[in-house]
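Technical appendix A lists one of the benchmark inputs used to test multi-chain prediction within the project. The record comprises two sequence entries:
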Amino acid sequence: MQDKVKSPMSSEFSVIGTRPVRPDGVDKVTGRARFGADLNMSGQLVGAVLRSPHVHARIVKIDTSAARALDGVKAVVTQKDFVSQSNATTNFGEGTLNLMHTVTNVLAGDKVLYHGHAVAAVAATSSAVAKQALKLIKVEYEVLPHVIDVDEAMAPGAPLLFPDMITEGVKPAPTTPSNIAKRIDIVLGDVEKGFNEADVIIERSFKTAPVHQGYIEPHACIATVSEDGQAELFVSTQGHWIVRMLCAKLLGWDINKIKVTAAEIGGGFGGKTVVYLEPLALLLSQKSRRPVKMVMSREDVIRATGPTSGSSMTIKMGATKDGRIVAGEALLKFQAGALPGSPVGPGCMCAFAPYDLANVKVIGYDVVSNRPKVAAYRAPGAPISEYAVESVVDELANKLGIDPIEFRLKNVAKQGTKAAYGPKFGPVGMAEALEAAKASAHWRTPLGKNQGRGIAAGFWFNIGGETTVSLVLNEDGTLGLTAGTPDIGGLRASLCMMASEELKVPLEKIRVQIGDTNQLGYNFLTGGSRSTFSSGMATVEAARDIKKEAVKRAAKLWELPEEAVEWDAASGAVRPAGPNAGKHKPMTLVDIAKIAGKTGGPIVGYSRLNAHGAAPSFACHIADVEIDPETGKASIVRYTAIQDAGRAIHPSYVEGQYQGGVAQGIGWALNEEYIYGTDGKLQNAGFLDYRIPVASDLPMLDTIIIEVPNPVHPYGVRGVGETCIVPPLAAISNAVSMATGVRFAELPMSPPRILAALDKARAEKTAKM
Amino acid sequence: MRYEAPETIEKACQLLAAEAGHARVLAGGTDLLVQIKTDVLDPSVVIDIKKIAATRTITSDAAGFKIGAAVTGAELKEHDALKAAWPGLVEAANLIGSTQVQGRATLGGNLCNGSPAADSVPALIAAGAKAQIVGPEGRRELAVEDVMIGVRKLALTKGEIIVSFTVPARPKHGGDAYLRFIPRTEMDIAVVGCGVALELDASGTCTAARLSLGAVAERPLLVAEAGRALVGTKVDAAAIEAAAAAASAACRPIDDKRGTKVFRIQVAGVLARRTIQLALDRANGKTGATH
């Protein structure tokens, strides 16, 4: 841990930058905290989902009569029970939204599009009855040819998932349908001109496997709908307002009918920003008039909830002898899964973002195939495209004989850099992160036998968005803070600290909760690394609201004009603004709370805003790997994540985000993949063979927090939760390449793949001798 | 589904033999219960053998050890004499699953689950363990390498149950080891597993050697050729290399989600070399960390 951020960096702050115990900590370590599956209601039914045994098939007929007739079955639903939706796509948060696709992923319509696609759902008095009921649902399928691989899905003659899919973003529009949902083009300058100036050009193709977010808590919810249509839903989600909106739209209900409460969440990483079980639970509850609880199995989670895209990519970059990158070109083909909506858009935008380049050309394709529909995963798209680019950047530096950090510094994005995707950067910390990497002890430590060291840069935009926070001053001067963005990574602690800093009220005098959808105005979800930024901004505004009100109340009590009373930040009290205002004893919030009743009633700070000015976070990671040359196994032996936090409100949770992103990146780089048979069925739908890292796979993941404050946020906050998963893929690939002398361009770098590459290199070497 | 927990082995065999439907024996349940919950198996009766004393005890005499089939990995680890005599076997049983799983998982269950990748089985085979079987026809003994005949297929007839395993006493200059290859560091299943037990005379010449491989064929293999490559040698580099080559040659793996055929054959040789070396160090009284 860094001492630098362990204690406040300057006398400017007394709370921010310290490491207090989180307010939700005790409940979590004692098991008292209620996660998605922890709530039970009397009379509840068990909801269960029938899933497709086929990879691609037309649904000829669904006969639910035998299931309905079974004793103990209280409701059965199919897609016909939902409102029909139009096939329109709108921008939404970090991605897009198409309600027809949403409902089709909740329950299949005329076709099943992947193995495990939900087809029908039942509610029954026990899980045994529910299981039996699923077996009694007769579905007649007409099996269709399938396609899994992205390149095969794009090839002419590939089985089509949607006979009417015409690629968007191509002019003139194609006349024949394909599996390509969309093409994206980003152009800056003139890459042809740039490549003409290059002394060295490297072009390489890459493949990455789709990976699952791997949250430990499976999707779970419980819904209850009363006879007059008032619905309550308790669910593990990253955004309960989003769940409310999606359910209301799919069911055709008014939004005010549905109250959603966010459970504690056992990981989301983007995967809990969509709905799967929630509309089913509500509908089953409405039909059965009983509470309905639904919990996915791990197998269901892996088979039928969002991984992020696998990809096939080609990157071409050119540089001059003195180390200036003159052109960057990328072709990115992303698997969307069975329905359009891969993160190829942000993948395209982020690809070259760490660099100040004059000539960039990026083409992206969003491609459907018979796999589960992707969902957001931590910096959606960025780890994939930046992996490929950072691998080529590393190779360019090697070829030019320039130190990889120096090479990146020569081309680094900084304040004023115009990013290929449009905006000009404000103050950003990419150069600072690279300098910190260069200065780190890690970078200077010699490597051992069979070891390699790689570095990579990383970028993510971060977002703001709609946010509401309320802050109640209680009668005794304590405070109740209610935010609406689920706390995934220490949000409550961070919000509490910002309120405490602003009001000079001790942390333990502020109780913080995540409110339900009836308690606050609209909140966009926890995602895009927005919650500390946006809810933090709203918390500070709400606290300032309290201060303003305190001044008003003291002025009333002292019979002074408001401008004659001021808030003294040092003491956290209101006082007369000057000697002319009289000799009133300063009043703290405890004093103000006592006079609230007689000076105008309860005091509540409130903030509702659309948080603009989210600033990107840049990172540089250093990875050391050791290869077993006989088995091809790569072990991470040392790792340092360096990233700009803007300002670390609670450094431990910033470090926790960095470490978590790295751990997931290590899994992505080394072992995680979806393994399909030729039958199109996923073979590793469980944590035994879908290998996320276990604790003993990882060394201590070191972190260095850089602070280049975001000028728009009252405390300088940048989102930190996503950028940290961007650099590991390339940092590790570059390290493996250095350790083995073989350039790797495919993930995961699993032992069989590394051993095969080593054997090939050894055979070539022998042949040459 | 019925649950039975008889207190004698005879009663257990009767229940098993008499069941018209699908009967399964329950020891630790770390495989069986998962398979029932995920609809892989749907037995009509589950017969828990943990109430039968003989399945739950470890006894020893001059000839060696008798280990109950329902003794858990964690219990093996707590048995100092067994651990000193057959460290490879005890370690193999304690590579299975997590610490929690090791508190339930048993040697009998690991074998009778019928997976070619079971960690404790190559170690049992290398140690020369014999399964003590009771059935409607009485008692019999079967070498562990002959118990599993294919994926999920055992040489047990209807009504037969493995009560215990006998393992010989540790030879004077003997050593055993088990190593496996997994992509992670724990909580995983062997892509290749290798058990070795060998015995030296006073001069350091190998007088007996058994090498067994897991996850490289439809069942765990006893690679006699590899043993022969070591016997009569000082277990020098050339002998180890010959044994490793024999190990690779014995593999008949498949390409699957856990590894390719080529990878398994190659790594079997690597593991054979490493496992022989560790067993040799132990036979020579040198101990070393294994994982």
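Residues 131 and 165 of chain B are 5 Å apart (CA to CA). The mean pLDDT of chain B is 96. Comparable benchmark entries are summarised in Table A2.
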